Amino acid sequence: MSSEVLAQPDALQVHASDSVAVALRALPAGERVRVGSAEVVLTHDIAQGHKLALRDHAPAEPVIKYGLQIGRATQAIAAGEHVHVHNLATALDGECVYARRPDVRAIRKPASTTGPIWQGYRRTDGRAATRNEIWVLPTVGCVGLTAEHVARAAQERHAALIASGRIDGIVAFAHPHGCSQLGDDLAGTRALLAGLAANPNAAGVLLLGLGCESNQLADLMSSIPQASRAKVRTLSSQGAGDELAEAASLVDDMVVEAAQARREDLPLSALVAGLKCGGSDGFSGLTANPLLGRFSDRLAAAGGIPVLTEIPEIFGAEDALLGRAADEPTFEAAASLINRFKRYYLDQGLPVSENPSPGNIAGGITTLEEKSAGAVQKAGSATLTSVLAYGEQALEPGLALLEAPGNDAVSSTALAAAGATLILFTTGRGTPLGFPAPTIKVASNRRLAEAKPHWMDFDASCALEEGPAAADDLFLDAVLAIASGRKTASERSGQRAIAIWKKGVTL
């Protein structure tokens, strides 16, 4: 599957074998449209981002986009007809038995550790940070508002240091969990918070507990990787006298220490970039996601770490990813993770194809296979070198596959907990929300970028208008500038939050 696409005046055929094309503008019924060597007369109005048939399809015949099957026709479809939910359906079922078929085109090892330079912070464990912040993480929802109060007051006390750039901010990330949880559900909350505490962007971390919660401070502290524990302070609110005063003192000490850090020249290989798509439309797989894929290839080739997640949004396109596994154990781990997620759906009595969302459908995406085929392009063609459990750290150069669902907040938080110091977030619909790591919002279409400049950081429609190479250069410049300290839209607006994957019962 190629991520290189060529703009056409009216519609785009992504791959030479595709049986459908994507309307680049709203097209009226009766219009004659030329796409490559094909010419069709539209039998229906086609909205921007939606699909039109390039040839006739018989009932049950596969419909092809990105060079992949995205479902089967549910009725006869004539050339020039609108192809969408009324005549196209998923062909996905349940768990699969996967056979490893290595993709020899995948990058097999870092090609170079030289390349673009950015300005970041080198931590004592050798990892690099794009921000120099203090994070307040509550162990339990009962002290979530207290954590926010502590961070807000400290932000005001240290406003001068923040304004001078000596530190980048003091932020609390509240959540409703940490008590009345059992077994794997509690373990997941603990692993997620431990991973966040280890993120290099947090120069110092205050773990603020209540005291009687299931997620005890000592257990959480022991879950944090050894190399990251020195920067962490703990406080039990029930065990303190004036918890606000004691928390303030701990934060102030960490601020003084963090203010000694300085940005320095760092290579591209020092970046860990989370890959995320939210609110996709018909252009996401044509502009924004391939843009991230080409960046991911460049990052992996330099020895950096792109991290792909949203496992349910791989269903239907997993063979393209599994073929790039570095070895048999990595292949088996990835295949097992994908099937576990399918079983997670089936055990709840839900089909594995319970996607796309209403917003996706309105934007032109019809089936999960179509959404997945566009979504996996974020990972480019880099070798899959590691498979990570929820809350586990990404440390090995090359593409990592992380266990997390598709939900924007849950998966983006998981990326930060895996060590992502940037999150590259594509969208065709838009969202104001950002996450612990700087979240670079990439618009798939010009209309969104122009309508929501206070949400979006980059307009990927330039990949169609100016060509992929020009778009890649502009995007690399934007990523490096943000890694070096330029604020994202969500940082400027204070839109940063976390969400924890709640899988079990609540007592």
UniProtKB/TrEMBL annotation:
SMART domains: SAF. It is an enzyme of class 4 (lyase). Residues 18-89 form the SAF domain. It holds the Pfam family GD_AH_second. Its EC number is 4.2.1.7. Keywords: Hydrolase, Lyase. Belongs to the UxaA family. GO terms for biological process: D-galacturonate catabolic process. It comes from the Bacteria. This is Altronate hydrolase. It comes from Novosphingobium taihuense. GO terms for molecular function: altronate dehydratase activity; hydrolase activity.
